[in-house]
C-alpha cells in the first residue's frame, strides 16, 4: 500500500470494501470496546469532569479568537529560549524546511516521535525523496511502517492489526530495516514490545536529527509538550543533537495554567489513564542537556481557512485524543482507512474536508456518520461534531447546485416531500396511497428481528439507500383514519371549545 491517502475512493466505496473484512471488524470491535471501557472508568472518577470539558473548550475558543497574538507571543518566547522558529504556509513549505535542516547536518536518517502533523504533510515521503530515511519509533507507527501500511486511528495507528499479524510483520520486515526480530518471536505483547525496543535502540543511539510534533505549545514560556506511553518519544527528544518540531498553529495555549487543564482531559480521553506514563516538556535549548539545536515549524496548511468559518472552526479545538473514534458506530465497522485521510473517524469527517478543500472524496466524508451524537458526548473540548457535519453537508449541496443546473435525486426528493407535506389535502392523499401500497406489497414483506415487517430493496435511485437499511412496511391505516374511527375522533367531533380535547 502506498504511503499517502491521496487518490483514495469516496467513503461509501471504501466503506463497502471494509465491511466485507470480518477480521478487521473483529479487531476494531475488540480494541475500541476496551478503550471505551477504560475511558469510562477514569472519567467516572472525576466529579467535575463536565466543568473540565467546559474549561477546555473555553481555553481553545480563546486561543482561536486571538490566535495571531498568541502565535507572536509563542515565537518571541521560543526565540528567547534559543529555538529557531519557522513559519510554513503549506505542506510543501514545511517539508522543505525539515529536509533542508537534515541536509545541513548531513543526516541520511532521522528518528521520529509519533506526530499527526508530519503525517498530514507526508514528511516521510518528502524525506525519502531527498534520500533521507525517517524511522518511526512509536510501536504502532513502527508496525504500520514495517507493514508498508497506512495508519487507521489517531491514537493507535495499527488498531486494524491483531497480535498474530504484528508478529508476522516483525519476522518478515525487521531484518530489512535493521536488527531482525528473534526467530522464536511469539505474539505475546511483552515479546513484541521487546523486539521493537531492541530493533529501535540502535537507531536512537545513532541518529543525529529527530523530528517531533507537539500536543501543546505554551505561548508565555515557549514550552512544547509531548505525551506518550512508551518512552520512545523521550529518547527522540533528548538523545539527538538536533530536534525539529512540526506544530500546527492551533496547538498553542496561552499559559501553563491552561496546560494543567489539558493534561487532565487528554490522557483520560485518549488512553483511559489518569495521566500519561511519559509527559515530556522542553523549552528551547539548555546548554549541555538535550538537543543543542532546536527548530520549531509552525504549520498552517489550511488551518487559517478553517478559522474563517464560524461553525467549522470548532474542529481546531481538537486535541487529538481519538475519543470520538472509539465511540463511533461507523468507524467501528469500517475502520480508519475508509476515510481516506490521516484524520479518520468523526473528527476526520469534519477536519479533512476543511483542510484539504472540496473534491469527490472529501465531499463524501460529512456523510460518513449516523449523527448519533456520541462523539460530542465524549469530546473533552466539546466539539459539536454533528453540528459541523450538517453544516458541511449543506456546503456540499450548495456547491452541487452552483456547479450543475440539473437537480440531484436528493433535491427532487426533498422538493416532492416539501410539496406534499405543505398541504393537508396532499398529505392525506399520500397517506392513503401509502396504505394502499402497504396492502399491495405486504405479501412480499419479510420479518426483521423483533417481529417488524420490513420491505426489501427499493426500486430505482432509492435502491442505494435501502441496501443497508430495513424499510418499515407502511401502515395499512393512516393516523387520520384511525383517529376518525376511534373515540379520539368522536371526542374531537363533540368538542365545542374549538381546541384539542386534551
Task: Walk me through this protein's architecture.
By secondary structure, the protein is an alpha/beta fold. Among the domains are: 67-304, 3-Layer(aba) Sandwich (Rossmann fold); 409-494, no CATH class. The protein has 24 helices and 13 strands. The strands form 3 sheets. The protein has a 6-stranded parallel sheet with strand order 1-10-7-4-2-3, sandwiched between helices. Strands 8-5-6-9 form a 4-stranded mixed sheet, sandwiched between helices. A hairpin with a 5-residue loop joins strand 11 and strand 12. Helix 3 packs across helix 12 (256-270), helix 9 runs parallel beside helix 10 (189-206) and helix 16 (345-356) packs across helix 19 (385-403). The model has no long low-confidence stretch (mean pLDDT 91).
Radius of gyration: 27 Å
What is the CATH class of the domain at 67-304? Answer: Alpha Beta
Instruction: Give the helix tally.
Output: 24
Percentage of residues in strands: 5-15%
Let me know the largest β-sheet.
Answer: 6 strands, parallel
Reported CATH architecture of the domain at 67-304: 3-Layer(aba) Sandwich
Q: Which residue ranges are poorly predicted, with pLDDT under 50 across at least 5 consecutive positions?
A: none
Name the CATH superfamily classification of the domain at 67-304: NagB/RpiA/CoA transferase-like
Q: What's the β-strand tally?
A: 13
Overall pLDDT: 91
Structure classification: alpha/beta
Terminal-residue CA separation: 65 Å
Q: What is the spatial order of strands in the main beta sheet?
A: 1-10-7-4-2-3
Amino acid at each position: 500500500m502506498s504511503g499517502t491517502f491521496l487518490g483514495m475512493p469516496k467513503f461509501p466505496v471504501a466503506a463497502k470494501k471494509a465491511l466485507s473484512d470480518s477480521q478487521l471488524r473483529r479487531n476494531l470491535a475488540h480494541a475500541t470496546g476496551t478503550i471505551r471501557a477504560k475511558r469510562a472508568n477514569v472519567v467516572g472518577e472525576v466529579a467535575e469532569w463536565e466543568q473540565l470539558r467546559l474549561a477546555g473548550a473555553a481555553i481553545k475558543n480563546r486561543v482561536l479568537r486571538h490566535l495571531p497574538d498568541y502565535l507572536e507571543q509563542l515565537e518571541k518566547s521560543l526565540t528567547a529560549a534559543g529555538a529557531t522558529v519557522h513559519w510554513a504556509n503549506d505542506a510543501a513549505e514545511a517539508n522543505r524546511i525539515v529536509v533542508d535542516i537534515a541536509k545541513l547536518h548531513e543526516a541520511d536518517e532521522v528518528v521520529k516521535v509519533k506526530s499527526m502533523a508530519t503525517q498530514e504533510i507526508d514528511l516521510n515521503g518528502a524525506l525519502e525523496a531527498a534520500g533521507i530515511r525517517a524511522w518511526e519509533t512509536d510501536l504502532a507507527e513502527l508496525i504500520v511502517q514495517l507493514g508498508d501500511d497506512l495508519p487507521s486511528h489517531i491514537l493507535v495507528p495499527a488498531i486494524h492489526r491483531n497480535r498474530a499479524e504484528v508478529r508476522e510483520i516483525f519476522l518478515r520486515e525487521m531484518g530489512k530495516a535493521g536488527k531482525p526480530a528473534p526467530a522464536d518471536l511469539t505474539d505475546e505483547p511483552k515479546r513484541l514490545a521487546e523486539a521493537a525496543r531492541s530493533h529501535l535502540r540502535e537507531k536512537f543511539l545513532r541518529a543525529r536529527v529527530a523530528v517531533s510534533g507537539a500536543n501543546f505549545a505554551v505561548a508565555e514560556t515557549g514550552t512544547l509538550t509531548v505525551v506518550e506511553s512508551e518512552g520512545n518519544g523521550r529518547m527522540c527528544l533528548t538523545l539527538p543533537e538536533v530536534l525539529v518540531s512540526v506544530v500546527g498553529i492551533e496547538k498553542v495555549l496561552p499559559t501553563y495554567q491552561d496546560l494543567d487543564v489539558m493534561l487532565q482531559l487528554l490522557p483520560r480521553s485518549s488512553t483511559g489513564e489518569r495521566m500519561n506514563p511519559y509527559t515530556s516538556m522542553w523549552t528551547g535549548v539548555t546548554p549541555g542537556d538535550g538537543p543543542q539545536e532546536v527548530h520549531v515549524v509552525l504549520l498552517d496548511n489550511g488551518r487559517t481557512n478553517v478559522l474563517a468559518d464560524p461553525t467549522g472552526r470548532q474542529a481546531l479545538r481538537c486535541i487529538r485524543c481519538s475519543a470520538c473514534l472509539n465511540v463511533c458506530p461507523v468507524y467501528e465497522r469500517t475502520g480508519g482507512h475508509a476515510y481516506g485521510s490521516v484524520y479518520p473517524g468523526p473528527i476526520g469527517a469534519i477536519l479533512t474536508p476543511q483542510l484539504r478543500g472540496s473534491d469527490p472524496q472529501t465531499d463524501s466524508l460529512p456523510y460518513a456518520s449516523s449523527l448519533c451524537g456520541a462523539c460530542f458526548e465524549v469530546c473533552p473540548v466539546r466539539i459539536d461534531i454533528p453540528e459541523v457535519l450538517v453544516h458541511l453537508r449543506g456546503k456540499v449541496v450548495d456547491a452541487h447546485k452552483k456547479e450543475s443546473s440539473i437537480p440531484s435525486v436528493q433535491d427532487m426528493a426533498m422538493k416532492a416531500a416539501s410539496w406534499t407535506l405543505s398541504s393537508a389535502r396532499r398529505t392525506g392523499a399520500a397517506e392513503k396511497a401509502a396504505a394502499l401500497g402497504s396492502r399491495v406489497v405486504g405479501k412480499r414483506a419479510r420479518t426483521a428481528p423483533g417481529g417488524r415487517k420490513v420491505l426489501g430493496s427499493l426500486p430505482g435511485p432509492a435502491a442505494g439507500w435501502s441496501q443497508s437499511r430495513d424499510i418499515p412496511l407502511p401502515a395499512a391505516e393512516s393516523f387520520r383514519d384511525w383517529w376518525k374511527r376511534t373515540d379520539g375522533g368522536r371526542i374531537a367531533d363533540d368538542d365545542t371549545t374549538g381546541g384539542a380535547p386534551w
